[in-house]
Amino acid sequence: MTLSSTDRRSFVLGLAGAAASAGLTLPRMAQAATPARISEAIHLGLYMPLYVAINRGLFDKHGMTPDLKTAGGIAQPVPALLSGAADFAVTGTGMSINATVEGAEMVNIAKIAGMISVWVVAKKGTTFAGPQDFAGKTIATLKFPSNTYTTPYYAMKQAGLDPESDVKWMSLPFGAQLQAVADGRADYATVFEWDASIGATQFDLDVVYSLGEALGPAVFSSTFVTRDFLETSPEAVQAYCNAIAEAERMLHEDEQVFIDVAAEEFPTVDPAVIAAARPRFFGDVPLVPRNPVITEQEWATLVAHESGAGTLRANLPYAQMVDSSFAEKAAKEFGLS
């Protein structure tokens, strides 16, 4: 499957329509510091700092009562903020840009995932040196705009390939990519966790490459709020960042925290999968951030990726889209570099 530029425009414009239908022009009421109403895109392992902050009582410690709801898609936390159903959105950072282009004025306050978390899985013995090795092969992915499609697409462009003609795309539903590699219908699958470790532990496949590590640090997922909420409830924003900072420190200091919270949040995932996945969350470019501060470099990497993949309506600057002051204060308080 190859997506045309029209398909990408339709996706981006669809996000704009969702934001408009949520009532961009309606004023937002200032929210109290408690409860902390959080809208997450999907229940994903890469949001582990959020789950640790909830499960280990860190929001409560910092004066907030967490109220987490799963929106069901990467664009859906935006309408939740705009309708007043939530105060904090946890999703792909690019969603904050597209909403702001439509006039919603979102501001990113904390880093939740510090790497574009897509891995390449293949049969045992497969050699994979980089995106150039996709040439002439069949790749099993989820449907656009999933990063399992957009990230290899972007990486191939960076490597000088034409992803429209140099590879064959196999767009499959959740859970089917690994089987496609195992039975030989696809040469590679590009997957998130827990799928990478499911491939290794249950399908006898190898995780042969990290596209995210190759691309470098990026603010793949973030927490953002409306500018109105930022200005009217700075104490709530600070308390939120404090809880996330403390959770990220806890995750890096004690590996059992990841194992235990993952088991609590994802009870249907085999413990062997969780154990196999943990090193990929704490690699050279850690998926679990060491602190919640969003740097200009991480912003630039994410924007270049999303723009190259065709999921952004505009390239908005770091200075407009990020307020790092709360995360910086939290990082300093908890001794995080």
TrEMBL record:
Name the record gives this protein: NMT1/THI5 like protein
Domain SsuA/THI5-like: 48-251
Domain of life: Bacteria
Protein family membership: Belongs to the bacterial solute-binding protein SsuA/TauA family.
Keyword Lyase included in the entry's annotation: no
Lineage: Bacteria, Pseudomonadati, Pseudomonadota, Alphaproteobacteria, Rhodobacterales
Subcellular location, record wording: Periplasm
TM helices/strands, residue ranges: none
UniProt keyword annotations, A-Z: Signal
Keyword Transport: no
Species the sequence originates in: Antarctobacter heliothermus
Primary site of residence: periplasm
InterPro entries noted in UniProt: SsuA/THI5 (IPR015168), TAT_signal (IPR006311)
GO CC annotation terms, alphabetical: periplasmic space
